[in-house]
């Protein structure tokens, strides 16, 4: 049972081991047609609320898995460092989304990509809150209910065959309502078609098996922000959440690799290249060899190109070159294309930053942060030009997690900044020990 986990001290161990919230829960926050809380939707025996014991015939692979305690606290970053990475990931992804051109007269604005990512965070947070109260909850069901709440908030009718989730605080955020954002219309049709069925897709029976658009990818970074758990847990959680709307193997595994890479960056001393490599190894273990081969080949080519070309760092600049991402024609990229473009643009920043750090005199922390923030802004623009908002979301999320250094001017222009910081603070309070 998850009860606000935190890193143990070298001399003290928790009285109970940490386990994930068990998906075989007896409760979930929904209402029936009469609006009474806690009721299951009375449709058919097979359409019972997934949060109930009868809603899933089999537990997920991570149900009730005991997570071994590490031998000492150095296995974890400090609470302050973890908090900075969580904020950096969410805000970096939002900047990538806003870089695609979505905006309003008062500044830049996020689209449905980031809205659904924030609802992914809130669904995961609801499962954690249940666990902190001593009640198991189905994480994927909580995320599904969160997506239904997002759908309702856009003024769309919920499916008659599905549950009616009770509202949560995020639902009242004005900037997440259609009239509060500069992008009221652009929503991936695969997302809407899946949610409109009223059915909860699973890894075993995913919805939209032909959908390989990047909508599941760009909402998956929050699953990687869950600290103190095994990366395999994160991988499977992201697979499950992607299966709610996107059943194509590449779309699901791209989402899981993205989340796992973010999670890998929460470890002390982790690099983006190492975290991405480990995430791809995990994809191979999860029966996605062809997908893994293609991404590993792309990253290998990128690494070779970085080693072969002359240094482009001048002084302290660490911005990637425009040739770090191949341009996709004027169409929506696939999930695999968006992940590849976004990851390569982010890796270019890290590679050059490490190169610069190895050969220059020590600089102040403020100077380094400013250089990385400028490089992050440039990488986001390059990814957006090559692969649109989905690729830019990947780049911004990864660099925000890796360096937690984001451009001040772009943050000031982001209309949803305060709201995202508030949601991040709530997640941090529930998951990270003070």
TrEMBL record:
- KW Cell division (keyword) present: no
Q: Which SUPFAM superfamilies match?
A: ADP-ribosylglycohydrolase
Q: Where is the composition biased (Polar residues)?
A: 30-46
Name one matching Pfam family.
Answer: ADP_ribosyl_GH
Bias (Pro residues): 1-11
Cofactor(s) named in the record: Mg(2+)
The residues listed in the UniProt record as binding Mg(2+), with positions renumbered to this chain, are 138
Q: Which UniProt keywords apply?
A: Magnesium, Metal-binding
> Region annotation Disordered: residue ranges?
1-68, 302-323
The Gene Ontology terms for molecular function here are: metal ion binding
Nucleotidyltransferase: present as a keyword of the record? no
Entry's cofactor comment: Binds 2 magnesium ions per subunit.
User: Known InterPro entries for this protein?
Assistant: Ribosyl_crysJ1, Ribosyl_crysJ1_sf
**Protein name per the record:** ADP-ribosylglycohydrolase
Organism, scientific name: Arthrobacter yangruifuii
């Amino acid at each position: 049972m998850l009860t606000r986990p935190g890193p143990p001290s070298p001399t003290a161990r928790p009285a109970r081991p940490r386990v994930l919230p068990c998906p075989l829960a007896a409760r979930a926050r929904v209402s029936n047609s009469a609006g009474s809380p806690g009721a299951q939707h009375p449709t058919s025996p097979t359409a019972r609320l997934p949060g109930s014991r009868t809603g899933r015939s089999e537990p997920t692979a991570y149900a009730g898995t005991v997570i071994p305690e590490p031998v000492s606290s150095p296995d974890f970053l400090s609470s302050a460092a973890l908090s900075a990475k969580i904020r950096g990931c969410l805000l970096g992804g939002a900047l990538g989304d806003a870089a695609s051109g979505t905006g309003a007269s008062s500044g830049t604005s996020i689209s449905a990509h980031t809205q659904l990512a924030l609802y992914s965070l809130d669904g995961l947070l609801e499962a954690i809150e249940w666990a902190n109260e001593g009640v198991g909850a189905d994480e994927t069901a909580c995320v599904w209910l969160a997506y239904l709440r997002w759908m309702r908030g856009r003024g769309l009718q919920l499916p008659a065959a599905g549950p009616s989730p009770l509202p949560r605080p995020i639902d009242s955020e004005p900037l997440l309502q259609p009239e509060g954002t500069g992008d009221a219309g652009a929503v991936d049709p695969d997302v809407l078609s899946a949610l409109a069925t009223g059915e909860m897709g699973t890894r075993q029976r995913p919805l939209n098996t032909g959908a390989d658009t990047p909508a599941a990818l760009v909402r998956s970074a929050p699953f990687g922000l869950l600290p103190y758990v095994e990366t395999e847990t994160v991988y499977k959680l992201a697979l499950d959440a992607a299966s709610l709307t996107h059943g194509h193997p590449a779309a699901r595994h791209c989402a899981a690799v993205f989340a796992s890479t973010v999670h890998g960056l929460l470890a002390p001393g982790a690099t983006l290249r190492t975290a991405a490599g480990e995430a791809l190894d995990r994809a191979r273990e999860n029966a996605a060899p062809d997908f893994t081969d293609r991404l590993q080949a792309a990253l290998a080519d990128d690494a070779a190109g970085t080693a072969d070309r002359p240094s482009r760092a001048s002084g302290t600049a660490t911005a990637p070159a425009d040739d770090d991402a191949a341009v996709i024609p004027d169409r929506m990229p696939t999930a695999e294309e968006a992940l590849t473009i976004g990851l390569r643009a982010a890796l270019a920043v890290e590679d050059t930053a490490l190169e610069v750090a190895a050969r220059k005199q020590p600089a102040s922390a403020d100077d380094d942060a400013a250089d990385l923030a400028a490089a992050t802004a440039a990488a986001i623009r390059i990814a957006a030009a090559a692969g649109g908002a989905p690729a830019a979301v990947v780049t911004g999320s990864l660099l925000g997690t890796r360096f937690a250094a984001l451009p001040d001017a772009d943050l000031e222009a982001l209309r949803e900044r305060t709201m995202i910081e508030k949601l991040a603070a709530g997640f941090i309070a529930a998951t990270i020990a003070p």
